[in-house]
Amino acid sequence: MSKEHWRRNVSLLKPYIPGIAIEDVKRKLGLEEITRLASNENPFGPSPKAVTAMRLALLDSQLYPESSCRALREKLASLFELKPEQFLIGNGADNVISLIGTAYINPGDEIIYCTPTFPAYRTITLLMGGTPIEIPVTKNQTYDLDRILAAITAQTKLIFICNPNNPTGTIVENGLLESFLQRIPPHVIAVLDEAYVEFIEQPGYHTGVDFVKKNYPVIFVRTFSKLYGLAGTRVGYCAANCDLMKPILAVREPFAVNRIAAAGAFSALDDEDYKFTILQENKREMEKLSKELRALGYDVTESHANFLFVDIKGDAVELTNTLMREGVLIRPCIAWGLPQHARITIGTAEQNERLLTALRKIIVPKERERIEKWEKFRLDLR
Prior knowledge:
This protein has about 375 residues and is an alpha/beta fold. It has 13 helices and 13 strands.
């Protein structure tokens, strides 16, 4: 069928390309073991409490789930000291972002965000007929709030702020975000994508929860995919004051989250010991991996997430393909227009060592070749 039958804005979209599946790499290269450090998954998996809850929920899988995920909303409300009706549970954070865009974006509305960042903001903006206003991040790889403020017009509807940002892992300095929210005009809503917020370690750092409590025009989005290790079950949520939530609730599918996923998310919130262990492991391994990558000559941006943004000072796609043949998967940032950068998930100690071993195996021959070429060049000059 011809594209003339398509909805007009669909042809503007660039399909989101997720990290390559482990199963595909095994089949393509005939490898038995794959280490995937490309999709920012929790390498330790979900909490045992979440696994037990999901197994029990399977016994009732013939039943439709409670439509609104009431129990999970009530638990989140208690955790954050908000009201259950301020929460919406969706099929992962990307689904929640799509719902927000569907609820708010009209043709001609301007939607502002910085780049590079999570591509879902651009996708839903174009799909709904809005106009994406893309502003480069600062030289420190953080969201440029001053330039965002300067870009606001009467047509601005939403501002997406990914904090910590994906793929850079950077955060807005504490205090700057609240100052920014105080200065945006009343017709603008700020959407804070906080998929990695639990990894921020700064004491007293203000997040979307704090801003909603202060009644700023903020919708914050979070997920169970990263810290809680439930990426495969697809559970995300957003929260705001009740007036901001009304149109989002109106466009939500009636059974957006399956019974098994909701049970896992509910019980994951109960396992504080497991959460603490994951955060400690991530911190320890991030420090070690950052140090080793810098020793190999790469530039590593300070991260507040569970991944590193790495300037490999070469062709990131070539390096990714070479590592793939060694059974290690990382994410090249070419889709963000950054051919020399890669995003590398923090894995277990064993996974990270496997990455470093593969890198050393790749780099040493290349360095030897570079030295040989230089020596030959010097001899030719004599």
